[in-house]
Design a protein that fits this description.
It is a single chain. This protein is α+β, with helices and mostly antiparallel strands and about 100 residues long. The N and C termini lie far apart (about 75 Å). It is built from 3 helices and 2 strands. The chain has 2 domains: about 45 residues, Pemi-like Protein 1, Chain: D; about 40 residues. A two-stranded antiparallel sheet has the order 1-2.
Length: about 100
């Protein structure tokens, strides 16, 4: 098991054998945690918030397509906008 030394500015060097096992490169992000008196580093990747929300939508089935033609896409957009307009009408009638 390789040992590391804490340097002047509290920096440590991850041994090459461990970097190779995890396929770490310069600039990669690691999440640091203290667990049961031990420091753990977990490789992480940043995902833009909007991309993460979009991926969550796809996983939960809140997505449309794929479409085989632009006509299918336009037709789907018209159907969804009609649904939204119908909801707005219902909301207006309840408040009157």
């Amino acid at each position: 098991m390789p040992l590391v030394t804490v340097k002047n500015k509290y920096q440590v060097v991850i041994p090459q054998s461990l970097r190779n096992q995890l396929h770490l490169s310069v600039g990669d992000l690691l999440e640091a945690k203290v667990e049961r008196g031990k420091i753990t580093f977990t490789p992480k990747s940043l995902v833009d918030r909007q991309i993460a929300e979009s991926l969550a939508d796809f996983k939960s089935g809140r997505s449309f397509g794929p479409f085989s033609s632009h006509q299918e896409l336009v037709s789907s957009l018209h159907q969804e906008s009609a649904k939204l307009r119908a909801r707005k009408v219902v909301r207006r009638s309840k408040s009157v």
